[in-house]
Hints:
Elements: H1 11-27, H2 32-52, E1 82-83, E2 98-101, E3 106-109, E4 115-116, H3 132-135, H4 140-150, H5 162-172, E5 180-184, H6 190-198, E6 203-208, H7 211-223, E7 232-236, E8 249-254, H8 264-274, E9 275-286, H9 298-309, H10 317-326, E10 330-337, E11 340-346
Parallel strand pairs: 4-7, 5-6, 5-8, 6-7, 8-9
Antiparallel strand pairs: 1-2, 2-3, 9-11, 10-11
Helix pairs in contact: 1-2
Amino acid sequence: MAAVAICSNLPGLTLARQLRNSRSLVLRRPNKLFLRRAFTAKVRALSTAVVETKQPEPAVEETNVSTSRNILACPICYEQLSIDSDGGLTVDSISGSSLLCNTCKKTYYGSETHFELTASSGAKEYGEAKAPSTEFFRIPLISYIYERGWRQGFLFGGFPGPEKEFELIKNYLKPVLGGNIIDASCGSGLFARLFAKSGLFSLVVALDYSENMLKECYEFIKQEDNFPKEKLTLVRADISRLPFPSSSIDAIHAGAAIHCWPSPSAAVAEISRVLRPGGVFVGTTYILDGPFSFVPLLSPVTQNLTQISGSHMFTSEGQLKDLFRACGLVNFQCTRQRRFIMFSATKPC
Length: 349
């Protein structure tokens, strides 16, 4: 929520590596005439091979990705945590596990379904309520119906559906395939489970503040045969206090989430902190533009709703682009379908 850098096994990269090795063997032959003929033959072979195995444009630039599985950090000091479980970060090893911060001397524990990695984890008398938009999704009934009718209603807002969204997501994430990915504000884990089953990532972290959403995710996993539990772990954490070391994450996905965050700027700044140089942030939300732009007093109304509910409404693509730029992310891209928008931004190298 044994690491293999999947992108290193892509046919195109393997072929390129074989061709480089093959060419270097030819260049070491001492006979100049043979060298000239062999080099010509190799150039012809190389040209043909490249045409046949040419990768899509987004994947041309090869990015180094992380294959480390111990990526959890203390949400207080951001130092890496020590894990006492031999199973590492897997669904089956969470229950009964403990994570120790050697700096803060604080221990975090795994519940039956997820790791508790909020800053206030372990407090017995202290408690705090979050914004209404956050607390709403902690309600057991809302968590239960999220994939049983609630998410399906997104189609009316222009969302193309999980399968098509997943294909779009993969296109944006091509430069970091094979690395780790955080499914932030994962809800009941709809996309976290797709990421894990795809085999495209070395580790998937399903992260949400709602313990009931994570419980639903765990129940869905138990119902699936042959689910790759070794690829996924579940973490309860605050989006504005992510429990990962700086520059340790290859990709972060946040589906239909950014408008629910009490402070999108605080959350995106945290995402920027934990992403590696070249790491990708991709997500989806609604944009109230077009005819909505002519609604009188729309801006003050949205500001008041934000203050009351703790959620945020975006009225233009430019607002998202400006937010990401202000938080240190570049290369803003997006795909639109009516009110739906899928966006992507990158941590500068």
